[in-house]
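Retro notes, structure queue

What went well: the backlog is down to a handful. What didn't: a couple of records were mislabeled last round, so from now on we paste the full input next to the output in the thread. Example, using Rhodanese-like domain-containing protein from Promicromonospora aerolata:
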Amino acid sequence: MSVPAHIEARTAEGYAGDITPQQAWDLLAADPGATLVDVRTEGEWQAIGVPDTTALGSQPVFSEWVRAGGRPNTRFLEELRAAGVTAGPVVFLCRSGQRSIGAARLATAAGLGPSYNVLEGFEGAPGVDGVRDQQGWKVAGLPWTEAGE
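Corresponding output:
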């Protein structure tokens, strides 16, 4: 299935583009072959929560882009393929929309895609007050669950 016409990705180098959290949800809803990949760390999933796509009949794939201690996940592509991510669209999500850019580029280079980055990530960059949760998936009102739910 192709990307719905109303989803216009912001131009990006090395991957299909940047989309808002709402556009990501719309893409996942419109294309049953689309996959959401959360590339945050396990600690972030546990402490902050995770996107909930059960209403769409799917579950996100969880694969750390960077391991605890800042070490790159050298098995990232292998983990994606093991989880069944072999075609696209693939939508990458991190905490603020930065790490997921690298994931989208690597996936594109490996032939997975089209690959998109979710702008603002799950909870956005810290505001001037140092607090997150001013933008991103959670603030957009998209479904998510807290750790342990």
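Agreed that this is the format going forward. Reviewer comment attached to the example: The mean pLDDT is 90.
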